Amino acid sequence: MAALVRGSTTWRWMVLLVTAVYFLLPLWAALRFAGISAFGSVVGESGFSSSLGLSVRLAVITTVVTIALMLPTAVYVHLRLPGLRRLLEGITILPIVIPPVVLILGVLEVSPAQLKASANLLALLYVVLAMPFAYRALDAGLRALDLKTLVEASNSLGGGMGTTLWRIILPNLRTALLSATVLTVALVLGEFTMASLDQYQTFPVWIVAFDQTSGPISVAASLAALIVTWIVLMLISMIGGRGGRGGRGAGATLFSVARREPPGGS
Questions:
Q1: Which of 26, 66, 234, 261 has its CA 20 to 30 A from that of 225?
Q2: Is residue 250 within a helix (H) or strand (E), and if so which, with residue range?
């Protein structure tokens, strides 16, 4: 038995080592190509601040609109129309199936001139792209809650739907909301196709365009964006795990759902 356990542990470490090499070796090669000095030169390059500012603004708008649309929809479906959950899952997966090139070209053909002249059109398109990720993060959090009991308890105390959503449901969905937020922000900060076809220089478009003049600086900017995204994901996981250990009931982490039984429960 002990030999079997040791063999299983060794196999896990081997898989972890191979996975680490698979992911870290290209990053190490990119770091050697760019050089440490290139990271200090990225900030001062022409177009860096404007492209990064545009991407951040689009990320904020996209996140706010996505959460404002997806959260009430997911809560209402879980409470009133549970039979439509599979249909909603199928609808929200469509942005992954439809190529971004087809989506942006179709939208540009039918959009009014004023909207096409604004970068906010990209934010609306990013809302569509973020739907699969945001909805599934929120759905995972709602599945981990006894939502019906929470709503009925709030209503019995005189709380309306708005109060229930703001003071009861949102605090219990903190980790799910953070997960949806970081996934949406990561999507916006990394999206290239739609921005380039709409002729806006977001941060990914700037990286690709700058690659033609300075490859090392372009690679350094890509690595910096990747590292920042990883740090945010780790912080989300730490905050979510700490919040789940500190309370009772259900908890959702970034990539999974865990239901904890109350003390004394079977």
A1: 66
A2: strand 250-252
Please count the structural domains in the chain: 1
Task: Output the domain CATH number for residue 212.
Answer: 1.10.3720.10
Q: Is residue 240 part of a domain?
A: yes
The two tokens of residue 39 are 């990271």
pLDDT tens digits for 193-213? 999 988 899 989 988 887 767
The predicted pLDDT at position 254 comes to: 46
Q: Tell me the residue range of the domain where 89 lies.
A: 44-257
Phi, psi (deg, nearest 5) at residue 46: -65, 130
For residue 49, give Cα distances in angstroms to 191, 192, 213, 261.
Answer: 17, 17, 18, 49
Mean pLDDT over 134-158 rounds to 88
Q: What is the pTM of this model?
A: 0.78
Query: What counts of helices (H) and strands (E) characterise the chain?
Result: 15, 2
Pick the more confident residue, 186 or 65.
Answer: 65
Count the Cβ atoms, other than its own, within 10 Å of residue 205: 23
CB 95 within 8 A of CB 70: no
